[in-house]
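Example A, followed by Example B.
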Amino acid sequence: MTLAALPHSSDAPLLFIQWAVGGIVYAASVMFVGVFIASHIVSHWQNQLEGHVTMQLITKQGAKQEQQKKDATEQDKQRILQLVRGTPAIAQAVWLEEEEVIRLLQPWLGSNIDIVQGISLPAVIDVTLKAQHALDPQPLRQTLSDWGYTLLIEEHNRWFSDNFAFLGRLKLFVATMMLLLTAVAALVVFFMVRVGVALHRETIDILCLVGARDAYIRKTLTRRFSFAAFRGGAFASILAALTLVGLGALHEHGLFWFQHAPTTEKQLLWGMMLIIPFIFVGVVALVTTLTTQRVLTRML
């Protein structure tokens, strides 16, 4: 009788470990990819919009009727831009044409973008702030109010602070779920090792009687459970990679982050996805070793 009689790849405990670890690795990989992409998208947006504010000019209700009915003339635009650019904290100001404003609204309106046709949209100015300068909008508001406009300022940093808070909570949730999945994997291995040893109790007793050492039996069981976990984890990693590539291929207009991400970020993402199954294989090996040693100690 040899150690080949111990749990092998066709045993129910090893098959259960293989597919359980595969499911856990796939779930962990998908969660990690989601948070990784969300984090880098938000960071990319922040870098693009850092130091930018958007100014909206709305004609006041008390302004002259003829002024309300017509768009700002080129002379009015230049006068307003000159005023805005003259503000000490502002480095650059660009007047957005109506087509650009409509294009900015498209992500929110989608196929209903036609509803803005015929609606008087506010004038929008894209403003770049000088570094280390705080914008005091009160003088601008007062002057533009005298000219018949109400000034609304949208500071992107405030919007991003809310999103970063949400992203932080999302990262905490994923970290908690990763710990929970690790604990689930450890519990599954613990019970499956006990089941595997119980199924082959007689074989192990005979092997011990003919001189097999505990360490040899323990290493054999650990190796076989680890290989089962590796098979499941490898399959799950391939499936997660195909999911990532599939999302990039199916995403509308090819705007999926992964398609246009820098090479270093792609390499980091693939590297982390490659590491995840090995983390769980390590958990399986550790728990198998400890559980087998405990069970063998009680048996003998």
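Example B, a separate protein, is given below in the same form.
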Amino acid sequence: MKRWWLLFAQTVTVVLGVYFVVLTLKPAWLRVSPASIALLEAPAPAPGIVPPGSMRVAAQAAAAAVVSINTSQAMNPAHAQDPWFRFFFGDRGQEPQGGIGSGVIVSNSGYILTNNHVVEGADGIEVIVNDGRRATAKIVGTDPDTDLAVLKIELDKLPTIVLGDSEALQVGDMLLAIGNPFGVGQTVTSGIVSALGRNQLGINTFENFIQTDAAINPGNSGGALVDVNGHLVGINTAIYSRSGGNLGIGFAIPTSTAKMVLQAIVADGQVTRGWIGVEPNELSQELAETFGLTRKDGALPQGVIITGVLQNGPAAQAGLRPGDVIVAVSTQAVRNVSQLLRLVAALKPGQQSTFSVMRGNQSLELRVTPGIRPRSVTPRPTR
């Protein structure tokens, strides 16, 4: 019995010794594999199959043509020498100021659409293509009245975006906004058409915005708003925000406007619009009573009332008077001030057009020869 006990003790001692040696030198040998569990995993999608509801095709089709824009503006020498400016902002010398924005390549010739406020006052403009290439851009022309600008870069094999039909959009249609928010790099956000024909926002002279809840933030200005096919339907321009960030209310200039501006700037370097020299207002009950326009049934006539006429301007020369209500321009009905501005702007300067007018209870047809609309400075939108 003693012999067996001694053999047992020696065996245990050897086993423990081997265990501690292995534990010290090769601890991995003693690790126990965790228990495996059976998981239900989805099969890998077949190549080329797009998941239901995905907008990847639209994003891929448009993203390559959306560029980032960096601008620089030299410090005003007068500011650098102004003691009050130096007191509040420090001695900044001639340090240039920078800005960021986005743009859309619309031609393989290098033409880029962006916002006027992105490049306004810039001394230097650098465009960064999505493939990493960089180029210095020159301004072909700007149109402050619509807050659009056309740039040009000299690079070969440029990707271009397909222009879509913004007039075919309906509230509820899916959209993607592509740009360079806060300078973090190209970003794609999604949303829907929240409203169409937004105007009287005080952003531009000619307002006909697409409203969307796709996230638009500082740096997105000038970027692309695209439909489910990846076609350009708008140029992202402004947001409604109390904090400077996205609140789900963004505005884009429709391609119907952008295309007209692009073609005019490329052809002539500027946009030439018609102008008749009047001060239009929405027709209210008070104005109708003031100018004796109230009907017997109490209804207001449809149209826009003219409350001021520039002396010797095109409208005055044609016989238009304060109190007249413009009902139609070249057979197109006029319903509000924004529409009147767009219709008059579309007229060719120097070419007579017919204006249908209500003067009291009298209907008149006046022949007006538009002049060239003066360029204006518009407020700077939040970008």
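On Example B: Confidence is low (pLDDT under 50) at residues 377-383.
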